[in-house]
Amino acid sequence: MPKILILAANPNDTTRLRIGEEVRDISEGLQRASHRDQFEIVQRWAVRPRDLQRAMLEESPQIVHFSGHGAGDAGLYFEGVSGNSQLVTGTALASLFKLIGQKSPIDCVLLNGCYSQAQAEAIVEHVPYVIGMRDSMGDRAAIEFAVGFYDALGAGESVEFAFESGKVAMALNSTGYDEVPVLLRGNVHPKTQQKSAPETKSQIKQPPTAISNSAPNEPLGVFISYSHRDEELKEELEMHLSALKRQGKIKPWQDRAIEAGTEWDAEIKTKLEAAQIILLLVTPRFLFSEYINDIELKRAMERHEAGTARVIPIILKPVDFKGTPFAKLQALPKDAKPVTRWDDQDEAFVNVVRGIRRVVEALSG
């Protein structure tokens, strides 16, 4: 699944930007897109130079999106320790992308900031596609370009098509800046250091998936990982999943279904191995459980990383899950707001089930 890493920086001593609106519009556009379940968005805010490198190492993104201020040949503005601006030069950025590319190839970089063409030219030596801005432009123009660009990617189009889509979006909204974006094409792949072969289909356009059913018409196996002390919330979720179950879309399983006389540990591992979707019902008790962490969560993430299952964290109760193996995954409900913190918990579960349904539809083809 291609991962989009959004890096936002608006230091205290720079002009205020509508970065939050830009990120929101990008996210909403991808959520509506036909290929919405083939992208994962990770956001980092108030990014400092050290955060930039750390985020790249931790997330291994395929698309890197910078939203902030550029300073021409001098570099891009990130936040310093005081909250004021700190420049990072194009040379330093190029070194970073060269290094990260050896670990995990990056397909595209979008520098959505004024006067960022110089940095794009430095980076493109190590990345197939880099988009920069040749001049200054208004906030509205930057947002329209980003939305048009990601709308096209979400529809399954190539980077080159998406670039033109962004420019058209700017023109349609009469921003007057549609000639500011510049698309640069690199000749050297950052990992192989060989010239790239002509692409007929972009990697971003049709990402492969290894998650499949042995029998296409059969329901997808859904493994529910939870703490027994959260039984009531688990049952509420199962009730809301009943429509998907009756429609023959999914076949949920949880350990209360183990029959008497069955070796429970072996049965859990068998069902965990067979599931196409693994739901993590995250609460403090879930994180406290040694069996869940040592057996279920460990194997679930191994299968997720291998592309043989989709892991979906569902945040049921307030809990600090930063640093957990699943912290990098998009969680449900919306904005990872715990189910128990919603004014109407049924509404929260509906939001969860809609997210699961989208995954089911994507995996079912």
Strand content: 15-25%
Output the number of helix runs: 12
Shape: elongated
Provide the residue-averaged pLDDT: 87
Q: Reading side by side through the largest sheet, how are the strands ordered?
A: 2-1-3-6-7-8
The biggest beta sheet is recorded as: 6 strands, mixed
Would you kindly provide a written description of the structure presented here, covering whatever features stand out?
This protein is α/β, with parallel strands linked by helices and 365 residues long. The protein is built from 12 helices and 12 strands. The protein has helices at residues 19-32, 49-59, 90-103, 117-123, 139-154, 159-172, 231-240, 242-246, 264-274, 284-288, 290-306, 345-364; strands at residues 3-8, 40-44, 63-67, 76-79, 85-88, 108-112, 129-133, 181-185, 220-225, 250-253, 277-282, 310-315. The strands form 3 sheets. The protein has a 6-stranded mixed sheet with strand order 2-1-3-6-7-8, sandwiched between helices. Strands 10-9-11-12 form a 4-stranded parallel sheet, sandwiched between helices. α1 (19-32) runs parallel beside α5 (139-154) and α3 (90-103) packs parallel to α4 (117-123). The two termini are 15 Å apart. The model is unreliable at 188-210 (pLDDT under 50).
